[in-house]
Amino acid sequence: xxxxxxxxxxGRAPKGALERVAEGLALLGGAALVAITLMSVTSxxxxxxxGKPLMGxxxxxxxxxxxxxxxxxxxxxxxxxxxxxxxFTTKLNPSLQAVLDAFGSLLLAAMLALFAWRTAVGAATVKxxxxxxxxxxxxxxxxYALMVPGLALTVLVAIRSAVQDWKRA
Length: 169
Fold this sequence. Notes:
By secondary structure, the protein is mainly α.
């Protein structure tokens, strides 16, 4: 029975909460990209056929793209698909590579923690100021606030990556 808990039918370990949330957030980011793509196609088609684009569509594209990018970050780190520069480390001992990878993951966690914090502060500041987009009047704090979960989750995933790399070292 415990072997069934340790591996699924494919022989892989079952996904933990961090993996499920990162995947879900990436799917939501993908849905946001699909939505802004459809909106852009509609606006371009409306401009071409009727001379009437969707007013302010670029504002929603900016907001949606920012949220989508932040939503993809945790899954990208989880899969270890962030850009790394390993030109100088490819010939190093694997345990030293693991230590350097752990250090890189900790740096990523620190930077994204700073970004998450400042983005949350920015959301609160923009909300308090009542700032809205120029054409559609969309409250700008929505974009900031919707980015924070992806940034914060990336911090947790990067810390997990650092721990895994440290154990590998």
